[in-house]
Write a structure and sequence with these properties.
Radius of gyration: 24 Å
Strand order of the largest sheet: 1-2-9-4-7
Distance between the termini: 47 Å
Number of strands: 9
Strand content: 15-25%
Shape: elongated
Order of helices and strands: EHHEEEEEEEEHHH
Oligomer: single chain
Number of helices: 5
Largest sheet: 5 strands, antiparallel
Length: about 200
């Protein structure tokens, strides 16, 4: 982990869509907090699971991955420049539930309470607007995912219903298998109703 030079920081901030609505003066004010721009090497731990780091991070360049201690070989997600992770410093701090690890050389802006206290209110408002946009995008993505899953549940229930009907018509089927099949179909219908 190392701190960055102002000129290199400005170049990365200018490239990121997150800062598109910031004026040159507002970007310069953000960049003046050079201690909050940190460069991580491949394999560096940026956020540790179970820590209570009260910071929000914006990935300016590089690539990071999310993993959990319980399944260290499973990559939960890979984040690219413009991604945000961590906690909004003004909110209740709870332990982090994932590790964030640099996959390659990565520059991160670490928004913490001292930085937010030192920024002009107009700059803080710009950050808040961008955070809201990110949250809306995430909600929209989740809605699409839920709609897809809902459709998949309906397809599975419908298909299983047809199979269940055929099983009911099979005279050699044991009563126990018939009861189990009917129970599974009822469970699928319940899941489908809950998803609607």
């Amino acid at each position: 982990m190392q701190l960055m030079e102002s000129q290199e920081i400005i170049e990365h901030v200018d490239e990121l869509a997150f800062f598109k609505e910031f004026t040159s003066e507002e970007k310069a004010e953000v960049v003046s907090f050079t201690q909050n721009f940190v460069l991580y090497r491949d394999g560096d731990l940026i956020v540790q699971q179970d820590s209570t780091d009260p910071s929000l991070h914006i990935l300016l360049n590089g690539e990071v991955e999310l993993r959990k201690n319980e399944q260290p070989d499973v990559i939960i997600s890979t984040l690219l420049p413009g991604s945000i992770f961590g906690t909004i410093p003004a909110l209740h701090i709870s332990p982090r539930n994932k590790n964030v690890i640099a996959l390659k050389k990565s520059m991160v802006l670490r928004l913490d309470r001292p930085m937010l206290d030192g920024l002009n209110p107009a700059v803080i408002n710009k950050f808040n607007v961008e955070f809201i946009k990110v949250l809306f995008r995430r909600v929209a993505e989740m809605n699409v995912k839920v709609a897809r899953e809902r459709g998949e549940i309906m397809r599975i229930t419908s298909t299983y219903g047809m199979i269940n009907d055929e099983l009911d018509k099979t005279p050699s089927l044991s009563e126990q298998t018939r009861i189990t099949s009917n129970l599974m179909y009822e469970q699928l219908k319940n899941i489908q109703h809950q998803a609607e």
